[in-house]
Amino acid sequence: MRLRSKVAIVTGGVQGIGRAIVLGMGREGAKVAVADLQVAKAKAVADEIRAAGSEALAVEVDVSQESSVKQLVEQVLRRFGRVDILVNDAGIYLRSLVAEMREEDWDRVLDTNLGGNFLCSRAVVPTMRAQKSGRIISISSRIAHHGAKEGAHYAASKAGIIGLVKALARELGSDHITVNAICPGIADTALPREHQSEAALKERLKENPLGHALTAEDLVGPVLFLASDAAAYITGQVINVNCGSSMH
Q1: Is the residue at 1 inside a domain?
Q2: b/e per residue, 113-151, with b = 16+ CB within 10 A?
Q3: Which residues belong to the active site?
Q4: Residue pLDDT, tens place only, 87-145
Q5: CATH of the domain at 80
Q6: How far is the C-alpha of 170 from the C-alpha of 177, rounded, in Å?
């Protein structure tokens, strides 16, 4: 129960990595706000957490909209009185070559993935500063390091998250707030399955030294570690969880 009495917000918490993180934090005793645009699914995940014995709150949020993000944090503070942990996981992926990319698609991906990260992080800073403690953990991607054909907007947004994390770590360290990023390798979740065949995905998942097909659950341990007291002096770092498919 490493997170007993802690309050966590997880964006994009209804599927894939976000859902696994939400359930993992609930198992560790955290009170969890499941924040997602799909509020019906968020309520179902919150019910799972409660059934397992932890407190949970489902909140509808559009992370690309400042007013929606402010309402999210206000609801969590009204319900739980504090925010100890923010996990920025909400994101979208749209496929397009740069030469054919519509400006509105570029803007949508950047506004959601990077803009949402900025808005959510900024929104929790005042309460974390008042507490003189906090953990901000942002989910980036191996694509931030490698780029992606038909995914320049996604790669740019995920690389931007790394820069934002490092800047925030420098700004917030004196308030005992740590800020870190996790870069998952390709995982067997809904997002990559939307963009390639099942057979191609299975082959790619095993292209790593460990020969393991990464799952959403494999990201839970690293996130829980960064959220715990054991990681009190780790900040501004990028943790690659990819079975060795890329090494930095």
Answers
A1: no
A2: bbbbbbbbbebbbebbeeeebbbbbbbbbbbbbeebeeb
A3: 154
A4: 999 999 999 999 999 999 999 999 999 999 999 999 999 999 999 999 999 999 999 99
A5: 3.40.50.720
A6: 10
